[in-house]
Amino acid sequence: MRWGILTGVVLASLVTTAAYAQSAAPIKLADVAELSGGGATAGNNWKNGIDLAVEEVNAKGGILGHRIEVTHADTQSNPGVARAQAQKALDDEPYALLGPGFSGSVKVVAPLAAEAGIAEIMGGEAAELTQGGNKFLFRTSFGQQSSMPKVAKYINDEIKAKSVAVVWVNNDFGRGGRDAVTREFGRYGIKVAADLSTEAGQADFAADVSKVKAASPDAVFIYLNEDESARILKELRRQGVTVPLIGETTLVGQKVVELAGEAANGARGHVGLTTDAPVDLVRAFREKFVKKYNYIPDHNGIKGYLAIYMIKAATEKMGKPDSKMLASSLHGLTIKAANEPGILMDMTIDQNGDIDRQGFLVEIVNGKQVVKQVLPKLN
Amino acid sequence: MSNLLDLVVAGLATGAIYALIAVGFTLLWQASQTINFAQGEFVMLPAFLMLAVMHAGAPFWLAILAGIVLSMLLLGLGFKMLLVDPMLRHGVLPLAIATMALAVGIKEAVKKFFGAEASPFPSIVPAGDIAIFGRMVSLQSIGVLVVAILAVIGLTFLLNRTAIGRQMQATAQNPAAARIVGIPVERMILLTFLINGFLVALASLLVTPIYLAKFSSGEALGQAAFIAAIVGGFNQVRGAIAGGLLIGVADNLAAAYVSTQYRAAVPMILLIVIILFRPQGLLGRAEERTV
To answer: Nearest chain B Cα to A257, which residue?
Structure first.
């Protein structure tokens, strides 16, 4: 009799354990990011932001009791490698795909995720990414179609520039930004005094800056990746260009300030996300990030962090993890920071996967980002 | 026209760095028939060695000194003993391929230990401009140019005006004959590798404030210097210098006056034209080999 009770208890505990293990199966996320190559600054910030959020969520019991497990694969900032890495990651049937950050890589990865029916939450900003009807692709930051009108309006209303030199990096990201901003300049009657394409990884900007000077613009719009932004800022300072230098997030990021040093002072830009935002939750995020990684993150760190909390909010909305329904759950979702502090600022995801959130106009002053204007959420 | 001086000076400064690296190509080729495809990574690495010494708390000057010494030991002595000597007996091609593998190894190791992100690097030349012919020219460009020219003059003096230099030249021209007349050929070859270690450390010190310390920064440098060495003449130090300066200036002028989009093609076009019409390079000497 005693043996019977004991056997019963053991069996019951085994069944319970198995059932619990089943219900608490981990949520597996696959990150495919630029961990080396030209996009390494962005990719490593993105990865660290993801890891920080995963650690936090798991420490609080995971998503609906499910722990998050994340794997990171390196695209080497190369679209071909990104596609191969994404395919490998999708073969393991993740709950969601995270990344990449480079728009060119997103373009080749997105069809794979859509075909697999897996939601892809990425860092790319090229306008075209979310305009092709892909129902599985989601941004973590503004696309160029959202940010460039604000930049052009600022250049017209505040700088009052009549002619602008546009310096852009010759890849999908740069070309998309250049096309979007020149279209907006056309609406305001702003003349493009010089249209200069540069190469990713370019080191010497003497000739480009020389052309900028020759064009005598009222302002320079710079749309390059972080390393190149730092190099051109140094060269612009060296050649004595004094007109306003305007850009987007990649011109006024923390890494650019670190690399360009004093030459970054005075650079201005529209940023969708900045760790200097006058928002308590963003400041708290920054402190946690600095404590864990010992450096100040740029906007990509925030993007990676938000990607995890977007998945958390959408999953909680469904009531259970369901990778096939995750994309539908994200569409039209409004996440309030009051309910989910990890989202940092109120956010709405539209039917294209684009987001609406407040933005900022910042200037580098004494090596620090100073928020000059807060642009409110539209809806 | 007003910007021409800026462009030429900046191009000469960049070209002088290419020249330092290209000289290393020609020295190693002449001394031991080594084509070092890791030469760009050899320029990238000393900057990280210097940064590591600085992070350990040493002042910049000490980090420079340590970086140069470490570079001569690792990229001069170590390179020769651990890779060139064992591989060279199997022929020039296996050695060239081994240096390609070394390039990948160095890049990956730096990425692993120092991270994939770019780091700022202090400049030995202060920021600011000086007036030349009424135009403000960057002190940094002038400084880079002066240091590189001094290094080249020093090297030329060593090669042409000292007994060791003449022994090195004799070793490069005919090692068998040099050995017969009592020249310590092995020591001369080692010295050449040590000089290359010094030159790449110097190039690293000059170029990294501009290019930033990044594991991948050697790729473009190595390629540009290799082209410079071929354009100038792979078997002549003065050819490598001329090739470096020419590539630096041509690149800048092409970007300014032709097209920024096609600037990368200009050195390649130059290379093709030189190979077609003067295969030994601008200042190189034609070599005939028995088959």
So the answer is: B120
CATH level 2 (architecture), domain A144-271: 3-Layer(aba) Sandwich (3.40)
Q: Are B256 and A210 in contact (CB under 8 A)?
A: yes
Domain ranges (residues) in chain A: 25-142+280-357, 144-271
ipTM for the assembly: 0.73
B234 in Cβ contact with B172 (< 8 Å): no
**Assigned token pair, A114:** 């859509």
For tokens 């590591």, the residue is B52
- Which CATH architecture describes the domain A25-142+280-357? 3-Layer(aba) Sandwich (3.40)
Dump pLDDT digits (tens) for B52-102.
999 999 999 999 999 999 999 999 999 999 999 898 888 888 999 999 999
Provide the strand spans (E) within A258-367: 268-271, 334-335, 347-349, 355-356, 359-365
For A40-56, how does the pLDDT look when each residue is reduced to its tens digit (9 = 90+)? 888 999 999 999 999 99
Q: How many CB pairs under 8 A join A and B?
A: 88
Residue B265 near chain A (CB below 8 Å): no
Report, as an integer, the average pLDDT of A350-370.
91
- Strands A359-365 and A355-356, by their bridges, are unpaired
Residue B166 to chain A, least CA–CA distance (Å): 38
The answer to whether the Cβ–Cβ distance between A206 and B252 falls below 8 Å is: yes
Give the fold, CATH level 3, of B2-277.
Answer: ABC transporter involved in vitamin B12 uptake, BtuC (1.10.3470)
Interface check B169 vs A, CB under 8 A: no
With a CB-CB cutoff of 8 Å, which residues 190-249 of chain B face chain A? 210-212, 214-217, 220
Residue A227: closest C-alpha in chain B: B118
B162 in contact with A, Cβ within 8 Å: no
Q: Which residues of B touch A227 (CB under 8 A)?
A: 118, 212, 214
Q: Which phi and psi angles does A279 have, rounded to 5°?
A: -130, 125
